Amino acid sequence: xxxxxxxxxxxxxxxxxxxxxxxxxxxxxxxxxxxxxxxxxxxxxxxxxxxxxxxxxxxxxxxxxxxxxxxxxxxxxxxxxxxxxxxxxxxxxxxxxxxxxxxxxxxxxxxxxxxxxxxxxxxxxxxxxxxxxxxxxxxxxxxxxxxxxxxxxxx
Length: 155
Description:
This protein is an alpha/beta fold.
């Protein structure tokens, strides 16, 4: 049923990932994460890159409800399947972000924090930096300067 999650219990059997008796903390969500099919949106293969245990998300020019949902679905799928321990949001091309972007970032922070991982934002400047500061996100994730040498406060 839509909106309900299936909770998997410890069975003592070895999973296909080879982890005996340990379920990924977010594994209950896997059935809710369909393979993302693009319908005119940004290609997620160009938006996300995995190196080691780090997932880099190149945030699109406009981070609105539609793009935030696409990023949320695909990043959660990758987080579960690739043992990600750090998420890096690259805002180098982003000029606009609304409240759905804030929600998407905080959701990824919550998920990776459960796994003992970290989140950071890089190349933050302008309007996006002000939104991150006003929303308080800068208190829970590391924010690095944009290419012009300004941090989220414009200094």
